Amino acid sequence: MNTNKQTEISLEMLITLLQGGTTLSESLRVLCGEGIPAFVRRNAMILLDAMREGCGLSSAFSRIGKIPGTGLRFSKIHISLISAAEVTGSLLPVLLDINDDLNRRSKARETFLSAMIYPSLVILIAFIGTILLYVKGIPLFIQNGMISESVMDSVFWGLLVAIGFLFLAGIFIVLFFNHVFNGESCEYTIFYSLSFLLRRGISLPDAITQCVSGIMNDKAKRALFAIKRNLCEGVLLSKSFQNTGFFDPFVTGWIGIADDNGNAISIFEKITEYYRQKDDKFRAAIARMIEPCIIVIAGIYLLILTQTIIMPILTYSGGFHA
């Protein structure tokens, strides 16, 4: 079972106990008992030990994520949200929202794995075909006099180039599609975090501070710090976002509505939903590109084989004259 699934199961079991009215420490002690999955029991023990040392739940989660072999991993933004929940005392609602977010990410990963089946099979078949061609096909061509042993070196290097191309293309496809399907846009993360924190009664400047700790993009961090500084100086919310130059005019115009009605939470939630749908549409568009990408890769692969094997065979046998 992978780390993401273990995290989801551990969180769901903790939430179930908290929903039943059990305190956090009592819930963790229950999860340390017999009959609980081994990975949940192990992580609950580590969390309890960390909290006995005076760590909050967010710090304990952060600590356990650094221990090799543990199956509990939360993103920086989730740790930041849990930290804010400890201040406001709204831990259960925060954990429920994080659980929903983890489930959504899990579905995205399942979509990614499904999308990878086709290109993986094509690349695997091409790889096996290349090996068989070198191990079985080329010796047969030599035995039948279709090519001489003198071209074996060029054939070997040609096959090496073909395999290298397949390997690099496969790595690129996996990394690229993994980033698309398992990642979130920076804008979605920002507005998801801000709306989440504001709903918990945290002021906007403090929410921005919490949000910054969970953002990886340096440009986004600078933009958020600038927004906080402008707000403290009395600048309008929409103007504060607009001055950064980081957000789309469409978004800053939308935030302008909050200047009039003062309901920033509702506006941020609408913007969050906008970016969620935008990210989903982008993933769907990328998913449609998988087959054309595989066709291009297969075409380049066949071109390499043609230049390094087919052409020498035709030339040697007299079937082709340059």
Which value, in Å, is the CA radius of gyration? Answer: 28 Å
Number of domains: 3
DSSP strand count: 0
Largest sheet: none
Give the proportion of residues in helices. over 70%
Question: Can you describe this structure in just a few lines?
Answer:
With 322 residues, the chain is mainly α.
Structure description:
The protein is mostly helical. It has three domains: 72 residues, no CATH class; 113 residues, no CATH class; 102 residues, Up-down Bundle (Receptor-associated Protein). It contains 14 helices and no strands. Helix 12 packs antiparallel against helix 13. The longest helix has 53 residues. The radius of gyration is 28 Å and the shape is flat. 25% of the residues are buried. The model has no long low-confidence stretch (mean pLDDT 80).
Itemize the secondary structure elements and their pairings.
Elements: H1 3-19, H2 24-31, H3 38-52, H4 57-64, H5 76-88, H6 91-143, H7 152-182, H8 186-199, H9 204-213, H10 218-232, H11 237-244, H12 249-261, H13 264-287, H14 290-317
